[in-house]
Amino acid sequence: MNLALPSEVKTQLVFLLAEVRTQLQNLMSLVDNPSTALVRSITERSGHSYNLKQRVHARCLKAFQEKQSLDAQSLKAAGDIADELERIASLCRDAARELQQLNTNKMLTKHKYPKQLERIEAALKQVEGILGSNDTQDALRIGQVRQKLSRFYKKTLDAHLKALKRKKQTESLISSLFLARYLLDMGESLVNISESLIAVLLGQPMNMKQFLSLQAMVSTLGHQAWDSLSLETIAETRSGSAISAITNEEDDHFIGVLKEGELRKVQEERKGLQRWNTIFPGIAPQILSHHHQGSSGALIIEHLPGKTLEQMLLQDSAEELKRGLQKMHQMLPRIWVSTRRKDKAFPLFVQQLKKRLPAILNIHPRFNEQIKAQTPFSLKTLLSKAEQIDNQVSCPFSVYIHGDFNLDNILYEDENKQIRFIDLHRSRHMDYVQDVTVFIVSALRLPLFDEASKSRVNETASAMFTIAQQFAQEQKDPTFEIRMALGLARSLITSTRFILDEAHANYLFDKGIILLNHIVQHDSAPLNQYRLPFKDVLHG
Predict the structure, then answer these.
(1) Predicted pLDDT at 228
(2) Where is the PhoU domain (predicted)?
């Protein structure tokens, strides 16, 4: 992608850059030759840089309103860059005032302050150049100045703390430290400018760590032409991480899918992909490259063809959806049988629900009161009673489950009649009912309110229940139905933390509470005799 800015926006941005560079150059001169007049020249120009920043924002708003530019991300980047440039100008003013407190500038020369200012000035010059060049590597180099300034700051801090212990030149040392901090803060602004530019050039917001990780991984795949690469967000996890398709714009070829995030989750995803392809070769995407740095990790995985079952349920014909579901129904029992272990599985559905309850009530605080219409118990009491039952039940065996078996994590490719799984970082040996109930509720919670759509959802949910019920009978699983009830209640209620529509959230919550109440009322009877009122879970 390119940084596509209307000429009026670009002009004001160049003027602001020139003003900030002038301020920085004046500060450099002040370090070399102290001057009260030069301090005044720097500190009295606050209004100028502020006005130029406001002009950039005003021109961006005008361009957006008049649709002069279809690239809203470039306009956002221009506004963000303007904010950071004005911040650097403000830091120049703070630094100029601090320089007045120094008795001598020898300390600045000794610790190489002029060299750091030259680095910042060179980076600002690169910003102006990149407005025309659209060079991703130049954008990266702008942000890398921060690393050098960080090393300078740490070295200066250590030296000054030792000098302060001698209790000589105390005021000058403190002023010098403040000045060093201002330079470090300028480096932070350069990182923000760099990331704004990279976000536009790659087509997606990305910080320096993420970009370096992407660079390392793509390079291992033999791609060096960064200007031809683009990223497009194709999904977002609930934790906020983006999943992006990496494309070579020269031949419109998919390189792979980028997944990045917390190192632990990325490592779990990697293990999940490897494990699934060992169990059922081809069911999960292949790992093309992986990288980690500190607490962050990233994977580039194979880009899979096809549509998610959620897309098919929402958009496709009933016949195509039926083919996808039938293929999945054939595959699931085979997976469960082939991965079956003798050790029992304890899903602890109510414990899962209680863990998420604070987040649910933060979104829907009225749920505490709403429960009164469905049960004589308070929410706390109902959960406590249900948990006592939940703790008594287990699956007599365990199977390898997806762990987040939502409709949008299952792909079907109609041409080759193939089912594939994605988003596998929660995969583990567990009760198969966990996957079944998550799948069913991922259909029921879709905001579909016309009769035809509700009928498709009910058919999808019922078919999954039937497959699981048949498997339970074949495997002699005596408490299948009460675990299904607990799992459905858990998923119905926890789903509401992602739904702001009050009526829809209330609908799902009420169904979950009715199920929990039904379970609690069965407390005195043997748990293997419990019968799930499944039709009551479906859309009426």
Answers:
(1) 65
(2) 18-98
Task: Kindly report the pTM of this predicted structure.
Answer: 0.74
Highest mean pLDDT: which range of 134-138, 322-326, 370-374: 322-326
User: How is domain 7-203 classified at the CATH fold level?
Assistant: Methane Monooxygenase Hydroxylase; Chain G, domain 1 (1.20.58)
For 80-122, give the DSSP string: HHHHHHHHHHHHHHHHHHHHTT-S-SHHHHHTTHHHHHHHHHH
pLDDT of residue 236: 57
Strands 399-401 and 296-301, how do they pair?
A: unpaired
CB environment 20-50: b (16+ within 10 A), e (fewer): bbbbbebbbebbeeeeeebbebbeebeeebe
- What CATH architecture applies to the domain 307-539? Alpha-Beta Complex (3.90)
Q: Three-state DSSP class for 254? A: strand
Token duo for residue 434: 């966990």
pLDDT tens for 176-204 read 999 999 999 999 999 999 888 887 777 66
Mean per-residue pLDDT, 93-103: 86
Residues forming CATH 3.30.200.20 domain(s) in the chain: 210-301
Q: Which of 513, 511, 520, 506 is nearest to 538 (CA)?
A: 511
Instruction: Specify the pLDDT at position 68.
Output: 57
Sheet with 410-413, strands from edge to edge, namely 307-308, 410-413, 418-421
Check: CB of residue 60 under 8 Å from CB of residue 7: no
pLDDT grade for 223, boundaries at 50, 70 and 90: low
The H-or-E segment that residue 485 falls in is: helix 480-495
CA 464 to the chain's CA centroid: 30
**In terms of Cα–Cα distance, which of 353, 352, 351 is closest to 493?**
353
The torsion angles phi and psi of 166, rounded to 5 degrees, stand at: -85, -10
DSSP string covering 291-359: EEETTEEEEEEPPPPSEEHHHHHHHS-HHHHHHHHHHHHHHHHHHHHHT-BSS-B---HHHHHHHHHHH
